[in-house]
Design goal:
The protein is mainly β and 119 residues long. The strands form two sheets. Strands 2, 4, 5, 6, 9, 10 and 11 form a seven-stranded mixed beta sheet that branches. The chain has a four-stranded antiparallel beta sheet with strand order 1-3-8-7, with no helix packed on it. Strand 4 and strand 5 form a beta hairpin.
Length: 119
C-alpha cells in the first residue's frame, strides 16, 4: 500500500511558477514509477508527466512540454512537478500516482492539490 500526499498548489497569476510536491509513505518508493495527472473543471482527468523509478526516463503530455518538469528524490520519497509560465488553462486539480507505467493505469493516487491560474 502506498499513500500519496500532494502539496504546493494555490492561486497564482498567469506567467508565475509553482512547484508541486508529492510525498509517498512507501519505503519501497524508489521501486515505483510515478506520474502526475490533472483534472480541470468539467473535463476528464488527463496525463501530464511521468518519471521512471530511477529518474532516468521522463515523458510529458504535448500540452505541457517545455513548461513542466517532473523530478524525484528517492531519498525523500518525493516526486515534484515544476510548472513554469503558468496559463489559465493549467487550472486544475493535480494528482500524483504510483504503481503504473507511462500514461497509466496507476494503482495508487493522492487526494490532489488545486492549482488556479488567474489572468
Amino acid at each position: 500500500q502506498v499513500q500519496l500526499v500532494e502539496s504546493g498548489g494555490g492561486l497564482v497569476q498567469a506567467g508565475d511558477s509553482l512547484r508541486l510536491s508529492c510525498a509517498a509513505s512507501a519505503r519501497t518508493f524508489s521501486n515505483y514509477n510515478m506520474a502526475w495527472f490533472r483534472q480541470a473543471p468539467g473535463k476528464e482527468r488527463e496525463f501530464v508527466a511521468y518519471i521512471y523509478w530511477s529518474g532516468g526516463n521522463t515523458n510529458y503530455a504535448d500540452s505541457v512540454k517545455g513548461r513542466f518538469t517532473i523530478s524525484r528524490d528517492n531519498a525523500k520519497r518525493t516526486v515534484y512537478l515544476q510548472i513554469d509560465s503558468l496559463k489559465p488553462q493549467d487550472t486544475a486539480v493535480y494528482y500524483c500516482a504510483a504503481g503504473g507505467h507511462g500514461t497509466g493505469p496507476y494503482t495508487y493516487w493522492g487526494q490532489g492539490t488545486q492549482v488556479t491560474v488567474s489572468s
